[in-house]
Amino acid sequence: MLKIKRVPTVVSNYQKDEAADESVGCGRNCLGACCINGARLPLYACKNLEKSREKIVVSHEAEEPPVAFLESLVLGEWEDRFQRGLFRYDVTACETKVIPGKYGFVAQLNEGRHLKKRPTEFRVDKVLQSFDGSKFNFTKVGQEELLFQFEAGEDGQVQFFPCMPLDPENSFSVVAINVSPIEYGHVLLIPRVLDCLPQRIDHKSLLLAVHMAAEAANPYFRLGYNSLGAFATINHLHFQAYYLAMPFPLERAPTKKMITTVSGVKISELLNYPVRSLLFEGGSSMQDLSDTVSDACVCLQNNNIPFNILIADCGRQIFVMPQCYAEKQALGEVSPEVLETQVNPAVWEISGHMVLKRKEDYEGASEENAWRLLAEASLSEERFKEVNTLIFEAIGCSDQEEDLEGTIVHQQIPNGGVNQKSNRIHGGPITNGTASECIVLQ
Amino acid sequence: MSLAEESSDSVFTEKEEEEESFNRRYTLWIKEALDELPHNFTITDPFLSGHPIVFASLGFLKMTGYSRAEVIGRNGKFFQGPKTNRRSIMEIREAIREERSVQVSLLNYRKSGSPFWMLFHMIPVFGRDDGKVINFVAVQVPISGRDHHHRKLTSVGDDVSSLDHSELVFGSCRREVCFGNFVQHQDHRALPVECDDDEQGLEDWEYCEASESEKLRAAEAINNVLSVLTRYSELSGRLVCGKRCCLRGVDCLSSSLVISLGRIKQSFVLTNPCIPDMPIIYASDAFLTLTGYKRHEVLGQNCRFLSGVDTDSSVLYEMKECILKGQSCTVQILNYSNRKDKSTFWNLLHISPVRNASGKTAYFVGVQVEASCRNTESKELRPETKQLSVVGAVRVAVRSSFMVTC
């Protein structure tokens, strides 16, 4: 058994108490049956994307758009928790800078973010793992860490209810604070929290996340996702989001179009970026875009390929980044200098926002170092091509051709061929053909 | 119809302000002089809320089909549409944020709704004495794409040398670096010159490269506009120039910070605790409306001008203590307005220290809520949440307003 030591990030004030978990009664004001009676939160039901799409497309923005309602809600509630001292540290007191260079990687010196903890087990070699109620999950967070309920509304209008009861019968989704924030406003979106979904992408949940990005109406508010094996810390379905008013290096990378699907979703690959990634955009509706990405992610999950997702540009651009850092780490293939920084390349790091624990790493931060770290997470070119083929098959665009003059040409390859191919690649790490079991000590 | 007729009172005062500041910098004759130039261009003011256009040339109006009144006060995004390339939009936004120039091909839309490609070339114009960005000037040169646009790969492949430019979306890295990689291909490949007269296809082009002569025309136009601005700024004594001649002063906010702050529609001020007497360095439009003062009357002043005879001095003391300790607080304080009726109002004031990227406190934010206005409409955010959201938005704006060293 391969073992690697990893220090996770604490996202909830109750995560530390994991050991003293199973107690009688609670007193923590959590979301369990013990405390949920009478609990209330504001509810934000966002406008139905389809019904309001007309408006989005047709209206030209007359000016720098004013702070949107959802943004005010997130920032106002976050500031409230901030002033109440619910965060483990003041993230705005952490020095941050843009690293000079082509891409503008952002570095932050944050010595307080990572906490030493007793080792627990968390398999890093399996992207799909069942929910384990005995481990920390979001039903155990204190209600004061929750900001509001969020749902995809039915209407063409936003609906807001300042004080809506939490109804355990009616599967609700919540937005919570991340008590170890990377930046001001760092929140977690937890779809259908009481359903205890494991950390894996499904169509409905990704669509909810895309709704949130669109609703925030601010290109500097992105949502991110880490699969298991790609540095998700908690196996309970959640997305993260925060504000950073500058473009991520990932968003700046040049792209090359690969194919366009029948529903008009354009898929491009990134060029000149340390982590080989795909960009999904377009589509005849936001749902088309979201569903196409979900199809791709489900494919990755089923093939045990860890990945990260970045939802950017108000939900118009979705990046999918398959990675293999954890596996490389377990096999001892990551360079020691990179390992020493103890930076795990999760979605924000891959996007170009590096949170550094040691002063020397921060002082010496360079585009070269950042590049080198991220490159370790990337799939090889060959492996990336294999993975793309898998994805394109899964979304129904196998053996794509360049599109000519607006028409899209697909060729479906016979099913037999498809299955054989995917079996060969299934679960295989990059170096050899055997899937080794690895355990990460935390 | 004209913008003024559609708009509410607050927009009207904005227009006055924008006229005023443009004329004060360049004198009343500037508009005539600019109207004599044949080019298509717009001039924007990043210090006005919404970063609006304050001048649009006749050529620009002709190109887009709008009247002057329909354009003045709009943000440049007004001319973008669903098929405008998102990367190009980001590139422009970043150039504004970093206060530098940019040149990019862009798909815009006329009043009729029909799209057209143009080469967009924008530069910042700096105040010579304070290093602040006074305006952005943007020139638009329509391009036909004859030389180079979407198309034609005979073979599918990852062979980099056979990459068709048009399929590549240029990242918004520094242009010179980006182009460094690709210009070579452009020169070495003998690309077929596509002559596409069909306008219908152009909305779907991935990119539309401008010819060398079109680029030169853009550069020439920029220089001409800049000359006129420089010349007329000499007349008023408030000189501008195309390059930053001095470091932006400590109490001068960057234009990008001002643009971000301009998105916040509530009443608030930023004060600088590091400067003697903690002056106001930013005041939102809503603050000016609430208090009845003009911007130039409040900038540089300590907030005490809002206090008067009946203002509780113990409350003032409490605030002072919080500021010294670097803490937030909320107080209810009687303020004296400069509105026509010179009325007093109860101000539910929240103040909080705000850090910048260095992690140190750079400003204090003060958010004013007129007590009588605290309606608890059921479908709105609680007043406390609204007030705190201003603090949050200011924190994000201030923290993010650190720039790439050029």
From TrEMBL, chain A:
Its domain of life reads Eukaryota
Domain annotation GDPGP1-like C-terminal: ranges? 249-396
Which residues does the UniProt record annotate as the domain GDPGP1-like N-terminal?
Answer: 70-242
Protein localization? Cytoplasm
KW Hydrolase (keyword) present:
yes
Coiled-coil ranges (or none): none
Question: Which InterPro entries did the record assign?
Answer: GDPGP, GDPGP1_C, GDPGP1_N
Q: Which Pfam families match?
A: GDPGP1_C (PF26216), GDPGP1_N (PF26217)
- State if Hydrolase is listed as a keyword: yes
Keywords (alphabetical) are: Cytoplasm, Guanine-nucleotide releasing factor, Hydrolase, Nucleotide-binding, Nucleotidyltransferase, Transferase
Task: Spell out the family assignment given in the record's similarity comment.
Answer: Belongs to the GDPGP1 family.
- Return the protein name: GDP-L-galactose phosphorylase 1
Q: What is the lineage of its organism?
A: Eukaryota, Viridiplantae, Streptophyta, Embryophyta, Tracheophyta
The gene for this chain is: LOC104730704
UniProtKB/TrEMBL annotation, chain B:
Q: Which domain of life is it from?
A: Eukaryota
Q: Which InterPro entries match?
A: PAC (IPR001610), PAS (IPR000014), PAS-assoc_C (IPR000700), PAS-like_dom_sf (IPR035965)
UniProt keyword annotations, A-Z:
Chromophore, Flavoprotein, FMN, Photoreceptor protein, Receptor, Sensory transduction
Q: Which residues form the PAS domain?
A: 49-99, 280-302
| Entry annotated with the keyword Flavoprotein | yes
Which parts pass through the membrane? none
Name of the protein described by the UniProt record? Protein TWIN LOV 1 isoform X1
Give the PAC domain ranges. 100-155, 327-383
Mind telling me which Pfam families this protein's record contains? PAS_9 (PF13426)
Q: Please tell me whether the keyword Flavoprotein is annotated for this protein.
A: yes
